[in-house]
Amino acid sequence: xxxxxxxxxxxxxxxxxxxxxxxxxxxxxxxxxxxxxxxxxxxxxxxxxxxxxxxxxxxxxxxxxxxxxxxxxxxxxxxxxxxxxxxxxxxxxxxxxxxxxxxxxxxxxxxxxxxxxxxxxxxxxxxxxxxxxxxxxxxxxxxxxxxxxxxxxxxxxxxxxxxxxxxxxxxxxxxxxxxxxxxxxxxxxxxxx
Length: 193
Hints:
The protein is an all-alpha fold. The protein has helices at 3-23, 30-36, 41-47, 51-72, 78-89, 98-111, 118-144, 152-173, 182-191.
């Protein structure tokens, strides 16, 4: 992809992020995305035939950014790398950060389309597999270095399920009065060798 095309894609993704955070999935349209996009609506249609095509690319864009953040932290120790992943998925200030909460709410809305749309189901399954693989690698490195005493495969899934559950509760049940990372901290403490 050329720099111009990459820049256009990034601008479209930023507009999608803004529109999804503001309007949620149910009220998201190409028009609401175009309202956040500095260029023309026709440019959106040039790159994407449908809203679902755009959202599929948006999920891929988010995952690529997630993996780049995780990869950028490769020089750190396993526990620091693990917390990088956790805090990317569940920011410590999510209870106070309205944009972070709105964005995660929108992602859950997208995830809730998976039972009804095979394309979403496949995209989220692939996303989950890639996130689990990243955490599994970190945990395996931690076992090798004597930092963790875990089954990397099983505990990677347990950690991500815990993070997703805490995120869901935080964005839907208004659990602002507690530290959202407390359950994850307790789990990571059990992982230590």
